[in-house]
């Protein structure tokens, strides 16, 4: 039975696991995307998303909580300054895991973890979406009116 065992230990002692996740989170914040194994990516997602949520409200208390887990001043500064401004309106889901296939050396499942708002490829499709809606009642009369006005313009010339 695995009752009450939420944490994936990743084959490491507690201190080593916490240090590794802190280093990976700092790399993710600074570089906006990193490649790692799928298991580490899932553990990193659980580790970093609460800190991004805390960074939305810039208080001394939140900075100290995040710094106690990240332990790098530059990463904390960038998280509260740049990342928090970009994800301010998002209610959650700040990271995305994209599976990449298997690693050549040991055939481990690899994945790319990235911050969602920093990927221009995925966000470009959402920006081009039209915001206007067409109604069913007025849709058929408008093209006829447009063709009639074009015909009258051609006759005047």
Question: Can you walk me through this structure?
Answer:
- With 157 residues, the protein is α+β, with helices and mostly antiparallel strands.
- The protein has one domain: Ribosomal protein L17 (50s Ribosomal Protein L17, Chain: A), CATH 3.90.1030.10.
- It contains six helices and three strands; from the N terminus they run H-E-H-H-H-E-E-H-H.
- It has helices spanning 14-31, 38-55, 60-70, 73-86, 120-127, 141-156; strands at 33-37, 95-102, 109-115.
- A three-stranded antiparallel beta sheet has the order 1-3-2.
- Helix 1 (14-31) packs across helix 4 (73-86).
- It is globular and about 65 Å long.
- This is Large ribosomal subunit protein bL17.
- It comes from Bizionia saleffrena.
- Part of the 50S ribosomal subunit. Contacts protein L32.
- Residues 126-157 are annotated as: Disordered.
- Belongs to the bacterial ribosomal protein bL17 family.
List the helices and strands and how they pair.
Blueprint: H1 14-31, E1 33-37, H2 38-55, H3 60-70, H4 73-86, E2 95-102, E3 109-115, H5 120-127, H6 141-156
Antiparallel strand pairs: 1-3, 2-3
Keywords: Ribonucleoprotein, Ribosomal protein
Protein name: Large ribosomal subunit protein bL17
Region (Disordered): 126-157
Backbone structural class: alpha+beta
Spatially, the strands of the biggest sheet line up as 1-3-2
| Tally of structural domains | 1
Second CATH tier, the architecture:
Alpha-Beta Complex
Model regions low in confidence, pLDDT < 50 over at least 5 residues: none
Radius of gyration (Å) = 25 Å
- Find the CATH topology: 50s Ribosomal Protein L17, Chain: A
CATH superfamily: Ribosomal protein L17
Largest sheet: 3 strands, antiparallel
Strand content: 5-15%
Portion of residues within helices: 40-55%
Shape label: globular
**Number of alpha- plus pi-helical segments:** 6
pLDDT average, as an integer?
Answer: 88
The CA-CA distance between the termini, in Å, is 86 Å
What is the string of helix and strand elements?
HEHHHEEHH
């Amino acid at each position: 039975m695995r009752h009450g065992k939420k944490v994936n230990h990743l084959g490491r002692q507690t201190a080593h696991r916490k240090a590794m996740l802190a280093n990976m989170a700092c790399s993710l914040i600074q570089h906006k995307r990193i490649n790692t194994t799928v298991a580490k990516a899932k553990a990193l997602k659980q580790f970093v998303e609460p800190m991004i949520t805390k960074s939305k409200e810039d208080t001394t208390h939140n900075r100290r909580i995040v710094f106690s887990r990240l332990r790098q001043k530059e990463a904390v500064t960038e998280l509260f300054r740049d990342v928090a401004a970009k994800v301010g309106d998002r209610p959650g889901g700040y990271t995305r895991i994209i599976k990449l296939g298997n690693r050549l050396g040991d055939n481990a499942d690899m994945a790319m973890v990235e911050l969602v708002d920093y990927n221009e490829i995925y966000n470009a499709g959402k920006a081009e979406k039209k915001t206007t809606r067409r109604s069913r009642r007025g849709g058929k009369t408008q093209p006829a009116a447009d063709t009639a006005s074009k015909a009258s313009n051609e006759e005047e010339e």
